[in-house]
Amino acid sequence: MDFIKRTLKWLTLFSVTAFVLLVAAAQYNLKNPGVLVAPQSSVPVKVLPTYPRVPEVDQMFRDLGITDIAQIEVKLTDDTGCTPSPTLRGCSFSYSDHMTMYLTSVWQREPNRYSTIAHEYLHWMWSKGDRANATDLIAVYNSNSYFQQRMSFYNYLGVGSEPFLNELNSTVCTEWADSALPFNLLAYCTKHIPNRSLLPSNFR
Q: pTM for this structure?
């Protein structure tokens, strides 16, 4: 009887030990014995693309206080894919996770190149739904006849239309003096372009 009890005890111990070893083995990489393999997550990890950097332009982003530089692809070229124009300084295409900014040879000859970079950057913010109040923008537009002439380049979009407001959003934030902007509008512009001292103040 004692022999049978001892035999059953050892069989039970052997079974438990074997089970533990099998469970542990399932966590090991069979191709690389001894390396513990972490359980795989079913949630995909999104890897953002990387873009060739233009150090000079990256520094200008930093000067303006723009921080999401890695998500901005910059191309110095006249082959922009945008509507051709002899005065085109820059244009951009906006996507959910990045933007592509084209800066032309006209831009490279500009005395103040910060305004174009900031202007195009704000188009990206607009595309993501981060926009200044349309009523504030129109109020600024209506307050200055010289500024209306400045914006006449975009009249083909339809004054007051969403595409026009998109351009108005970028232009007001990059060409107006801080002192002439309504508080809410200035707060919006400063949120995206913290160092506004580098931008021109063509309108007051």
A: 0.76
